[in-house]
Amino acid sequence: MGTEKENKKDFTKKYETAWDKYSKEDVEKVFALSDRYKNFMSTCKTERECVDEFIKLAEKAGYVDINKIIKEGKSLKAGDKVYANNKGKTLAMFLIGSEPMEKGLKILGAHVDSPRLDLKQNPLYEDSELAMMETHYYGGVKKYQWVTIPLSIHGVVVKKDGSLVNVVIGEDENDPVIGISDLLIHLSADQMSKKLSNGIEGEDLNILVGSIPVEDKEQKERVKYNILRMLNEKYGIEEEDFVSAELEVVPAGKARDYGFDRSMVMAYGHDDRVCSYTSFEAIMAMEKADKTCVALFVDKEEVGSIGATGMSSRFFENALAEVMDRAGDYSELKLRRCLANSKMLSSDVSAAFDPNYPSVMEKKNSAYFGKGIVFNKYTGARGKSGCNDANPEYIAEIRAIMGKHGVTWQTAELGKVDQGGGGTIAYILAEYGMEVIDCGVALHNMHAPWEVASKADIYEAMRGYYAFLMEA
Ligand code: MN
Ligand code: MN
Asked: In terms of DSSP H, where are the helices of 307-391?
């Protein structure tokens, strides 16, 4: 039996909305961060554009390319800032700490690739005097969502001489947009009786790009030829150059405030640029650290983290070895200790509870808009398969850090057990033996052309990442 006062102690945990705790000044900060984020999201719609923009901003803040440090034979000391750029599509930023590297790193990791439609290798063709382009979707998309919306094209074409042409068409308000047609309702009897999953098939995702023929009546496929001529005039490219191109078709237009109260952001590619951008701001706010801080932005998460720019490549390990070497602190054993002693927040988006679709969620373990950064002990599917199951000792440490900094956080699973699931990059880093937990920002419309996130959650994510870099 305790005293009456002790008996009144509340042992329950309530997950409350962050909006309740904000002062007027806090709300200004919440909205200011989202304004910066919207600017970023309105222009950075490919992994390359994200990496380019991060490097540009990081260099202004004193980050130096590790290759330059190596070339000039310089060494690194506490407080130095370096980055490693992997083929323009993966980026690792390091803020060198005062402690020996073998004590481990504090790592923020997120991915900068997003679901989209990639052009095929031979994309351009003419059918019925219309110029069309073939696509192959990238990542998990509901194909019917990509028709009848304005699309833009972003990417690079690398010519045979190695020169690289940057392409962005459809974002400037004076630009044309492109798009994929859907069948008129009047003639959709067959289509409407199909399952949603095959109402629009992968091979139906062909983009209409032109309809004017060239004047020369001798020319075959005059409409297609006219498009090739225009591309050649503007970019100096020929049809064969599509073979060595990475052209990504994405929703055209800017990120916008969402809701009458402007409490949310609608954007293309929140998954996972919302975690990338907030992680980036968090490490940029750090000037010195005990343990070396890292922000890692990777490609190819949406297709299984494969390839030279995906998390499964040795890029990060190699970059870390170079950094340790420049810090005068490298050996194979120290590298392994460093990785095993590291701690990581592996960030990716979560599903926010949606009143339109309550049946797929288990309400007690769902994420909600406004309730802050989401921690997922595990992700995976069907019996946690493929997940990283974070250790409770580590979760306790994270709880304490979030509490110390007054960060609003929540915990969630991705929907009901056996309803589906998803994976992240967490398990890949955990292979080194480091402590890793999944976390991130909850969304509506995940993987749709336009996804929605809460401004409060974006702000709390950034604060959570900063708290982790300060305290872990
Ligand atoms: Mn993701
Ligand atoms: Mn995803």
From this structure: 315-326, 332-340
Residue 442 φ then ψ, to 5°: -85, 145
Gap from CA of 137 to ligand 1 centroid (Å): 16
**Tens of pLDDT along 313-366?**
999 999 999 999 999 999 999 999 999 999 999 999 999 999 999 999 999 999
Cα–Cα distances (Å) from 158 to 144, 202, 414, in that order, read 31, 26, 39
- Closest ligand to 273 CA? 1
For residue 157, give Cα distances in angstroms to 164, 168, 246, 247: 6, 11, 6, 7
66: amino acid identity, one letter: I
**Rounded-to-integer distance, Cα 290 and Cα 95, Å:** 10
Cα of 221 vs centre of ligand 2, distance in Å, is 39
Distance 234 CA to ligand 2 centre (A): 34
Question: Distance from the CA of 460 to the center of ligand 2, in angstroms?
Answer: 20
Sorted by where each starts, the structural domains of the chain and their CATH numbers stand as: 18-114+268-471 (3.40.630.10), 116-251 (2.30.250.10)
Say how many Å lie between the CA of residue 154 and the centre of ligand 1.
20
Q: Tell me the CA–centroid distance for residue 140 and ligand 2, in Å.
A: 7
Whether omega before 172 lies within 30 degrees of 0, making that bond cis, reads no
What long-range pairs does 468-471 form, CB within 8 A, spacing at least 24? 468/106, 468/108, 468/282, 468/343, 468/345, 468/398, 468/401, 469/106, 469/108, 469/282, 469/283, 469/286, 469/289, 469/293, 470/286, 470/405, 471/401, 471/404, 471/405
Task: Between 32 and 6, name the one with better pLDDT.
Answer: 32
pTM for the full predicted model: 0.96
| Closest CA relative to residue 92, chosen from 272, 274, 247, 292 | 292
Question: What is the SS3 assignment for 19?
Answer: helix
- CA–CA separation, 388 vs 377, rounded Å? 8
Cα separation, 427 vs 312, in Å, equals 10
- Calpha distance 104→264 (Å, rounded): 36
pLDDT at 4: 57
Find the 365 Cα to ligand 1 centroid distance in Å: 19
Q: State in Å: Cα 128 to ligand 1 middle.
A: 39
C-alpha of residue 113 to centroid of ligand 2, in Å: 9
